[in-house]
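Page 42, continued from yesterday. The earlier attempt failed because a stray header line got pasted into the input along with the sequence. Redoing it now with the clean sequence only.
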Amino acid sequence: MILGGHATIKELKLKTKIMIKKLGLGSLFRRQVILLAVISFVLVAAPMIPSLRGLVAADKYDDQINDLKQQNASIQGTVDGLVSQASSYQDSINKLQQQINGLQSSINANQAQQASLQQQIEDAEAQIVKQKAFLASDIKAMYVDGTPSTLEMLATSKSLSSFVDKQEYRSSVQNKLQATLNEIAALKEQLNTKKASVDQLLSEEKSQQDQLAGARSQQAGLLSYNQSQQDTYNQQMKANDLKVTQLRAEAAAANRRGLGSGSLSAGDPNHGGYPGNLANSYMDSLTDPWGMYNRECVSYTAWKVYQTYGYMPYWGGIGNAWQWAFSGWQYSDGTQAYGNYTGTTWHTANADAAGIPTGSEPRANSVAIWNNSRYGHAMWVEAVYGDGSILVSQYNFSYNGTYSEWHVPASTASTFRYIYFH
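This time it went through. Structure tokens are written below.
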């Protein structure tokens, strides 16, 4: 729709050849016309050369800025990898801690069981002592030096029957004592077996817990080193960002010095201040300091960026409007291609290549790019309203190289891509 462009001697030759071909002129005359056209171009563009030199000198900053941006992009990729790795470390630490906590719960339960068994063993031992003492008091009278005399028992018995009863009682007491002792001893043995099993289990669990704690400590060390690396890389990116800010300030200063001769000064404020030498010359007869044809949409927006922020990257040779904010396939003449065409090349958006942010949110003093044709259209956002509509100023909206303003409805403004040069 709206041509954005860049004028070079090569392109001027091409345009002149096309015109001569249409007129059907001879080869000798064609060469003469081409030569005259080139000479005319140089003479007309001569007043612009000093300021262009200033911008080309300032353009060296773009290379440094782009290099720093590329470094940061590479570093950010490394940091992203470290973040992913750190997440893996943290996940391992969390899982190990869960296992440690699970083992600790089991250890606590087994220790409680261990203590309970130990108490039961001690109770059994105490019961043995108690039973022995109790039974001993009952049969004490039947023993002499610890052994009862059968003759004495018989002599003291009133009858044989009584003797037999005493003998049976004695045997009964002995059997009962033995049974009680055996029962308590068996219980104690059982308790000791259980305790030994619990002791073994506790030992194994504590050993496993120590191993898990060691693994967790190793993962924590890796995570700490990872985070240290992230901090180092982030500091490097911050330092690069600071350098970018400084370089942009230096570039702006160099740009102002390059344009300080007055070769490019603000024109009619009612026409966006577009410089008079560009606004008052035939459309596409001059190039501005950024390599754009005069009175084109891109030339006007380049001027507005420079006027507002003191710096506009030199995008000569890649000046079509869509190229400012959109990446895609392009024809050999720089215009946008739709679909897969033979001989086209891939173009990375100028803003992306320069590290200048873009977005879908309209902001005052930003550039709006409308990707509505093979060439696209560039506009300067003057104001943003509450209903989502915007006011833009522009050149060549009606293909006649003139200034105009447009109150863009929200539905259309939402389809634009915005470049935030500030």
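Notes: The first strand starts at residue 328 and ends at 330.
Reminder to self: strip header lines before submitting.
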